[in-house]
Design a protein that fits this description.
This protein has helices spanning about 75-80, 100-115, 125-135, 150-160, 185-205, 225-230, 275-280, 330-340, 365-380, 405-415, 445-450; strands at about 5-10, 15, 35-40, 90-95, 120, 145-150, 165-170, 210, 230-235, 245-250, 260-265, 270, 290-300, 300-315, 320-325, 350-355, 385-390, 390-395, 400, 420-425, 435-440. With about 450 residues, it is α/β, with parallel strands linked by helices.
Length: about 450
């Protein structure tokens, strides 16, 4: 017989306590505890049957290369590591309305045409609502089946009977187990439902996609263990005002976590952006101060984008540093280097930095371009628009080397750039046959001498 145990669970982070607390000691959230009833069963829980029950030497374990399923969307396959691995569980999170359901519905049609029956479980929309979206996207496959269901036990029965090639659950916060006495979307429901779907995927060798909601802080709603349970965690990013969407891998057991996929939102859904550098630079204005092109490595692909900086006298007592698409603290560091090492004091002015296209870049290889854009705006001196800048800036003002310089320069030359400024250290062994001037710089002063 199962026994019941009452507990209070934080709905933000999953912290449990035998009594309700006003503030969670883990995530510091106020009034986030909800009472839940946990059933403690005496029988053993069902596990993953495909796993070995006895230990064996790894030297005797045989592993064959699995054939991945292609989604028909090149950028989606790139982020997944080359396609979908059978038996894997993929969690996709993102802001409401960013395009998660649109992406999976488009991928479902391509998968159904290539591999057979696909089951799309919609726990938040009716079948007719899903049909309206499918009509807008042009999805008309006869082997794509839609199920409107929230009860996980019923979903498992349909999977056993239907035996689909891929299962999509939209969303994990909407499904529930009737044996758990808590509301759908609670920490316990999310954890247990995800665990059941994980066992289902592994035992039946069926890929399962889970759509997850995000909190106001941009993290996936539910317990943190949810991200540890699944094989792949993808975040769908982008601003509602921009037409570009970025799919980024945060965790991937079957591929790199450095790859990103770039899509353009159109009337008929998401379209792969095969040459994002050319697209991001297509609307550049004539030479203006504070505008410089930088190169960032996103996975195995160099990405060229425009950095814009604006330095204006402050109208307030304390100057402001505002950044869009780049870390604001990194901007403050670069301003300090500019002041200390070359004597350009912008500390009394408001500094605004923007990465065009709605991108968010964390790679330090764009430091040199950002710093030069600030200096260009401060001195009101435009930079030649056929120049690309690559390099990390150290606290001593030195330009530190970066990886994959050859790929970055070749991408710039392919797009018609005539001059590349990069760390002098990267000249060693550099082989560039393209028609582009190569300028190596050692510190910030050298960079200013070349540009301004």
């Amino acid at each position: 017989m199962a026994r019941e145990k009452r507990r209070f669970v934080c709905q933000e982070c999953g912290y449990t306590t035998p009594r309700s607390l006003g503030r969670c000691p883990t995530c510091q959230s106020w009034q986030s505890f909800a009472e839940e009833i946990e059933e403690l069963a005496s029988s053993k829980q069902r596990g993953i049957g495909q796993l070995s029950r006895e230990p064996e030497p790894i030297s005797k374990v045989t592993a064959s290369e699995v054939e991945r399923h292609l989604t028909g969307m090149a950028e989606f396959d790139r982020v997944l590591g080359g396609g979908i691995v059978p038996g894997s569980v993929v969690l996709i999170g993102g802001d409401p309305g960013i395009g998660k359901s649109t992406l999976l519905l488009q991928a479902s049609e391509a998968l159904s045409r290539s591999y057979g029956d696909i089951l799309y479980v919609s726990g938040e929309e009716s079948v007719s609502q899903t049909k309206l979206r499918a009509t807008r996207l042009g999805v008309v496959s006869d082997t794509l089946y839609v199920l409107c269901e929230n009860d996980l036990e019923q979903i498992e029965k349909h999977i056993d009977t239907f035996k689909p090639k891929v299962v999509i659950v939209d969303s994990i916060q909407a499904v529930y187990l009737s044996s758990i006495q808590s509301a759908p979307g609670s920490v316990t429901q999310i954890r247990e439902c995800a665990g059941r779907l994980l066992i289902c995927a592994k035992n039946r060798n069926i890929p399962v996609f889970l759509v997850g909601h995000v909190t106001k802080d941009g993290t996936l709603a539910g317990p943190r263990i949810l991200e540890h349970m699944v094989d792949t965690v993808l975040y769908f990013e982008g601003e509602q005002q921009h037409i570009y969407r970025i799919l980024r891998a945060i965790k991937n057991r079957f591929g790199s976590t450095n790859e990103i996929g770039i899509f353009e939102m159109q009337n008929r859904g998401l379209v792969d952006v095969m040459n994002p550098s050319e697209l991001f630079l297509s609307n550049r204005e004539a030479e203006v101060s504070g505008s410089i092109v930088v190169s960032s490595m996103e996975g195995t692909r160099p990405l060229l984008m425009e950095v814009q900086a604006l330095v204006v006298p402050t109208n307030y007592g304390n100057p402001r540093n505002t950044a869009t698409g780049v870390d604001r603290h990194r901007i403050a560091l670069l301003i300090a280097v500019l002041n200390k090492r070359v004597g350009i004091d912008v500390g009394g002015a408001d500094v605004f930095v923007n990465i065009t296209g709605g991108l968010r870049i964390a790679e330090p290889g764009i430091d040199l371009g950002v710093l030069m854009a600030i200096a260009s705006s401060y001195r009101e001196i435009p930079v030649n628009r056929q120049t690309v800048m690559i390099g990390e800036v150290g606290l001593g003002g030195e330009i530190r080397p970066v990886a994959h310089v050859e790929r970055r320069i070749r991408e710039a030359a392919k797009l018609g750039f005539k001059r590349a400024i990069f760390p002098d250290y990267n000249r060693k062994g550099l082989k560039i046959d393209e028609d582009i001037e190569l300028i190596g710089v050692k510190d910030v002063y050298d960079s200013l001498s070349v540009l301004l």
